[in-house]
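Could someone model adenosine monophosphate with this protein?
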Amino acid sequence: MPTIFSRIANGEIPSYRIASDDSYYAFLDINPVAPGHTLVIPRKENDYIFDLSDADYAGLALFAKKVAKALEAAVPCKRIGVAVMGLEVPHTHIHLIPIQKESDMNFFREKLTLSPEEMSGIAAKAEAAFNEMYGNK
Ligand code: AMP
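Reply:
Sure, complex below.
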């Protein structure tokens, strides 16, 4: 059975897309710890990031780097924080979080509630920045 993140990458479950290619997909986290909190996943199913092959790990990291650059351009922040946990969803994903200060990376505090319009607005800006920087492929 496909994971929830595979179903998101395939378009079966809606998401606020930031970037997509044949191997990777990036979309806004539905329970953000900061505006622009994004998840980057490989389309190939794999639970634990450190079980990826060297090539797949490098490919995911490089795609995440491009997404981080686009987020940096689209969301006011000092830099993009990175986290990997994967305790909730068993499909490898990298959290990219636009941060102003260390506490913006706090996963234990109450999550933000952004309206669908706010989420769409952030995703559209970040996707436009990604496409401008790297083309839409
Ligand atoms: P973790 O597996 O602990 O790294 O956390 C999984 C993350 O996926 C959490 O931050 C969730 O808010 C996020 N998440 C779960 N379901 C969805 C979804 N349908 N769309 C976007 N993000 C999701």
